[in-house]
Specification:
The termini are far apart. Helices cover about 35% and strands about 20% of the residues. The protein has 13 helices and 11 strands. The chain is an alpha+beta fold and about 450 residues long. The chain is extended. Strand 3 and strand 4 form a beta hairpin.
Length: about 450
C-alpha cells in the first residue's frame, strides 16, 4: 500500500502538545451566558453580546441561550468543548444585575454585582471618531491589572487570600504572553482592570476595553494627509486628498489662517511619554528561484559568501505615537460572594453576611454530611450497576449475545437520578436571608 503524503508546503503542522490533555498548554476558552435568556432584558442581552465580543477569539461566539436551558446543561458541555471559564449574566427579582465568573470543572465562583455599565454603542456614540472593529478581535487582548494588592491586606489574612484568589482567576482568563515569542503586531487590544481603593474595604473593580492605534509623529496632521501609507489606512477613500486649487500658497493650507493659528500650534506640541521608536515598514520585492540563484552566483564570484543584513539606520527608524481608543463595554463590578464549585458549593466569603465560629462549624458539618451521603449514594449506584451487568451476562451467556450495551444506559440513568436527588439550591437559611436583604440572587 502506498504511503500517504503529508502536505508540508502549504499546510501548517499540527501542534502535538496541544492535543495532549493535562499538559497545561491548552488555551483558555470561555462561554458568556445569559441565565434566563430573554428574561434579563434587552440591555443585559446587549451587554452579554459586547462582553462576548471582548472575549474573542477564544469564546463561544455563536452561543444561543434558551429559557429552558439550565446551568447543568452548559456545565455538561464544558468538558468536551474544553471550556475553562464561565461568565454568567443574570438579573434578580429586585432588578440587580450580577456577573458570576466560574472556573470549570470544580470552581470556585466569584459573584460580582454590576453597579454601573455602558454598552459599546453608547461609548461609540459619545466619541468624535469611534474606532471600527476590524482585525483587533483576531487575537486575545492584553490584560493589564492595577492595584489588585493593597498594604491593608497584609494585616487581614482573609483580604489577602481574597486578593490572591481574584488575581489568579483573572490572570487565567487569557493565554499568557511571552516577550520572546509573542509578536508585537498581535497585541491590538487592552483589557484594563483597575481596583478602586475604598475606605470601607469594599472590593470594586472597574473594567475598560481599549483598542491600540499608532500614528507617525514629527509631522502635522495636514502633512500626514499626503502620505501614501496614511491614505491606505483611511477607512473612507472619498475626500482623502485636500483640494489646494483655491489656495495661492501652500502655507495657507499648513498654517490654516481660518483657525487663527490654534490648529497648527496644538499639532506641534507633542507628548513624548507615549512615543516609541520602531523600524519603518518597507515593501520588498520577492525574488524567484532563478533570481536567487543568480544573486548567489554573483556573490560567490565577487568573493562575498556571507550575507549580512544592513543595520538599521536613522532614516529607517521612525517615531510613532501610541493612542488608546475605548471600544467598550465599560463595567463597574463589586465583589459580593465567593463560593466553592460552580454556583452550588459552600460559601467561603460573603460581603453582607458574617458568621460566628459556631455557625461556621455547623455549616461545615452540614456540608460534610452532604458529601458523605453523596459518596455513599455513588457507591451504592455503582454496586447496583455491576450487579445488573453480572446478572445479564449470566442469563445471556448461553445464547451468545453477550452484553449489548444496556449496562452503560443503566449507568447513565443512575447518574441522572443522582443529579435529581442532589439539590444545588439547598444552602444555609441564614445565608439566603442575608442575600435576599442585599438583593443577591443565589
Amino acid at each position: 500500500m502506498a504511503k500517504v503524503r503529508k502536505k508540508k508546503r502549504t499546510h501548517v503542522p499540527a501542534d502535538e502538545s496541544a492535543k495532549k490533555p493535562g499538559q497545561g498548554t491548552r488555551r483558555p476558552k470561555s462561554m458568556v451566558i445569559r441565565m434566563g435568556a430573554g428574561d434579563v432584558g434587552s440591555s443585559v442581552t446587549q451587554l452579554a453580546r459586547d462582553f462576548r465580543a471582548m472575549m474573542e477569539p477564544d469564546t463561544a461566539s455563536r452561543l444561543k441561550e434558551r429559557k429552558a436551558n439550565k446551568l447543568k446543561d452548559y456545565t455538561a458541555m464544558t468538558g468536551p468543548l474544553g471550556v475553562t471559564h464561565l461568565f454568567l449574566f443574570s438579573r434578580s427579582k429586585t432588578g440587580n444585575i450580577h456577573l458570576r465568573v466560574a472556573l470549570t470543572p470544580r470552581g470556585p465562583t466569584l459573584t460580582f454585582r454590576v453597579d454601573h455599565y455602558a454598552l459599546c454603542k453608547d461609548i461609540a456614540r459619545a466619541q468624535k471618531h469611534p474606532h471600527g472593529g476590524g482585525k483587533e478581535y483576531l487575537n486575545a487582548p492584553l490584560l493589564v491589572m492595577n492595584n489588585f494588592t493593597s498594604q491593608e491586606s497584609e494585616k487581614d489574612p482573609i483580604q489577602k487570600q481574597l486578593e490572591s484568589l481574584t488575581t489568579t482567576i483573572f490572570q487565567s482568563i487569557f493565554p499568557p504572553i511571552s516577550p520572546q515569542n509573542t509578536p508585537l503586531s498581535s497585541i491590538r487590544r487592552i483589557l484594563l482592570l483597575n481596583r478602586e481603593a475604598q475606605a470601607d474595604g469594599t472590593y470594586i473593580i472597574s473594567l475598560r476595553h481599549y483598542a491600540i492605534t499608532t500614528r507617525r509623529t514629527g509631522v502635522s496632521k495636514r502633512v500626514r494627509r499626503f502620505d501614501p501609507s496614511e491614505q491606505r489606512l483611511r477607512e473612507k477613500k472619498s475626500g482623502a486628498l485636500p483640494n489646494l486649487g483655491k489656495l495661492e500658497d501652500v502655507a495657507d493650507y499648513l498654517l490654516d489662517p481660518a483657525a487663527g493659528g490654534y490648529t497648527s500650534a496644538s499639532e506641534t506640541e507633542l507628548d513624548t511619554d507615549n512615543e516609541v521608536e520602531v523600524l519603518e515598514a518597507t515593501t520588498q520585492r520577492v525574488l524567484s528561484k532563478k533570481e536567487q540563484q543568480r544573486q548567489q552566483q554573483s556573490q560567490t564570484q565577487n568573493g562575498d559568501t556571507t550575507k549580512q543584513a544592513a543595520p538599521p539606520t536613522a532614516s529607517n527608524v521612525e517615531k510613532r505615537a501610541i493612542k488608546l481608543v475605548e471600544l467598550g463595554p465599560r463595567l463597574r463590578l463589586r465583589l459580593v460572594k465567593v463560593e466553592e464549585g460552580i454556583c452550588d458549593g459552600r460559601v467561603m466569603w460573603n460581603e453582607f453576611v458574617t458568621k460566628t465560629a459556631s455557625q461556621e462549624k455547623a455549616l461545615d458539618q452540614k456540608w460534610e454530611k452532604r458529601r458523605t451521603e453523596k459518596e455513599a449514594r455513588k457507591k451504592e449506584q455503582k454496586e447496583n450497576v455491576e450487579r445488573k451487568r453480572a446478572a445479564k451476562k449470566n442469563t445471556k451467556v448461553n445464547s451468545g449475545k453477550g452484553e449489548d450495551g444496556e449496562g452503560e444506559e443503566s449507568e447513565e440513568e443512575w447518574d441522572s437520578e443522582e443529579l435529581e436527588a442532589f439539590d444545588p439550591d439547598d444552602e444555609d437559611e441564614e445565608m439566603d436571608e442575608g442575600e435576599d436583604e442585599a438583593g443577591i440572587e443565589a
